[in-house]
Sequence to fold (111 residues):
Amino acid sequence: MCLFCKIAAGEIPSTKVYEDESILAFRDINPMAPTHILVIPKTHIPSVDGITAENSGLVAHIFEVIPQIAKGEGLTGGYRMVSNCGPDAGQTVNHLHFHILGGKELSGQMA
Ligand code: AMP
Ligand code: ZN
Fold:
């Protein structure tokens, strides 16, 4: 099982922010902003490259929940969503995840 599958299964502890039957949001262990949350599907999808017509409903669900999480975190000034896909993007955990970053004025640099 990969690291985030283990977190989804509760085998590795995490600071949960949101959970339902199909997705989980938890705080990044190495936060890059005052709010830094990772949102994952509980089922293993390796990266954005693994999104298909069969599983994209999960991704839609994640994006429906993100505004609720942002509201709960008080991110009234806005926030940034990031998903690193593959080595050039620096993906370090090969389980699809979306970073929510906010709580400060973020760098204007995208890459
Ligand atoms: P990425 O580099 O886009 O693949 O993002 C992986 C993220 O997972 C990094 O921001 C790490 O800090 C974070 N991370 C790694 N292990 C854990 C963990 N056990 N709990 C929470 N976040 C983690
Ligand atoms: Zn996994």
Q: What stands out?
A: The CA atoms of residues 89 and 111 lie 9 Å apart. The pocket of zinc ion (ligand 2) is lined by residues 2, 4-5, 44, 95 (CB under 6 Å).
